[in-house]
C-alpha cells in the first residue's frame, strides 16, 4: 500500500474532487494549469487508470482527451465499449513538466486520491494503461510487478483495500500511437479486456437478475 495510515480518505466524490483541485501535496501543483481528477460513470464496475495528464489534459482538466485519449476511445468503441460507461483517471492528477514520468514521491503523495477513488467506485475490474499505472496498482495489492510488456494482456486477481478485483494491464495508448506493432498489441489487449468485462460484469448482472427472479417467486408463494 502506498499511502500511510495517517492519510485521510475522502468519503464523497465531491470532497475528493475539491481536495484534488486545491491540492499542494507535491511539487506538481506549481506547474499545472488544471488538475485532472478523473471522469466517467461513478457507478461503473470498470476503472481505467493511466499515468498522468498530458498537455491537452492539463489545458482542459479532463483525462485522456489528447491524441492518446482519442486512440483509447476509438479502440474501446471498436470493441463495443463506451467511454461514458467506465471511470477513467490517472495515478497522478497533475501534469509532470514536459510529460516526464511521475517520480515515486509524487505518486506516493497523490496515492490517497487514487485510493479514495477505488474505495468510492468499488470497481470489479481495473484496466491499467502503461507501466506506471500497472506498477502502482500492483503495489497497492502488495504484488510483484514485472514490467508492462511481461504483465500485459492477462487477467490478475488482486486484493486492494480489502476488495477482491481483477486487474488487466495493457500498454499506454500513447506508446501505440505511432508504432504499428504496439498498436496491434494494444488492440488485442482491448479485445481481451472487453471479453473479461462481458464475462465478469454481465455474469454478475445475470446473477442479480436470477436472484431478483427467485425473490419474486418466493414472494408469490408466501
Ligand atoms: S499530483 Fe496529486 S499530490 Fe501532486 S499536487 Fe497534483 S493532486 Fe496533489
Condensed summary:
The protein has 222 residues and is of the alpha/beta class.
Mean of all residue-level pLDDT scores? 92
H/E topology pattern:
HEEHHEHEHHEEHH
- The share of residues in extended strands comes to 5-15%
CATH architecture: 3-Layer(aba) Sandwich
Bound molecules: iron/sulfur cluster
In spatial order, strands of the major sheet run 1-3-2-4-6-5
Number of strands: 6
Report the principal-axis shape.
globular
Q: What is the total number of structural domains?
A: 1
Helical stretch count? 8
Assign the CATH topology. Uracil-DNA Glycosylase, subunit E
Radius of gyration: 18 Å
**Major β-sheet profile:** 6 strands, mixed
The CATH homologous superfamily name equals Uracil-DNA glycosylase-like domain
Structural class: alpha/beta
**Name of the level-1 CATH class:** Alpha Beta
> What's the end-to-end separation, in Å?
49 Å
Amino acid at each position: 500500500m502506498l499511502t500511510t495510515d495517517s492519510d485521510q480518505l475522502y468519503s464523497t466524490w465531491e470532497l475528493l474532487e475539491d481536495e484534488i483541485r486545491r491540492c499542494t501535496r507535491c511539487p506538481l501543483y506549481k506547474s499545472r494549469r488544471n488538475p485532472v481528477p478523473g471522469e466517467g460513470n461513478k457507478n461503473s464496475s470498470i476503472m481505467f487508470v493511466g499515468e498522468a495528464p498530458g498537455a491537452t489534459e492539463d489545458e482542459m482538466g479532463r483525462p485522456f482527451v489528447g491524441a492518446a485519449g482519442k486512440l483509447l476511445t476509438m479502440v474501446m468503441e471498436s470493441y463495443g465499449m463506451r467511454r461514458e460507461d467506465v471511470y477513467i483517471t490517472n495515478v497522478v492528477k497533475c501534469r509532470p513538466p514536459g510529460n516526464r514520468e511521475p517520480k515515486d514521491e509524487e505518486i506516493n503523495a497523490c496515492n490517497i486520491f487514487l485510493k479514495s477513488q477505488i474505495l468510492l467506485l468499488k470497481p470489479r475490474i481495473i484496466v491499467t494503461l502503461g507501466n506506471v499505472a500497472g506498477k502502482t496498482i500492483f503495489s497497492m495489492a502488495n504484488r510483484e510487478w514485472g514490467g508492462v510488456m511481461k504483465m500485459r494482456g492477462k487477467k490478475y486477481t488482486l486484493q486492494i483495500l480489502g476488495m477482491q478485483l481483477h486487474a488487466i494491464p495493457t500498454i499506454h495508448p500513447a506508446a501505440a500511437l505511432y508504432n504499428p506493432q504496439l498498436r496491434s498489441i494494444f488492440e488485442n489487449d482491448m479485445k481481451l479486456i472487453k471479453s473479461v468485462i462481458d464475462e465478469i460484469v454481465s455474469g454478475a448482472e445475470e446473477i442479480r437478475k436470477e436472484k431478483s427472479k427467485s425473490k419474486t417467486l418466493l414472494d408469490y408463494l408466501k
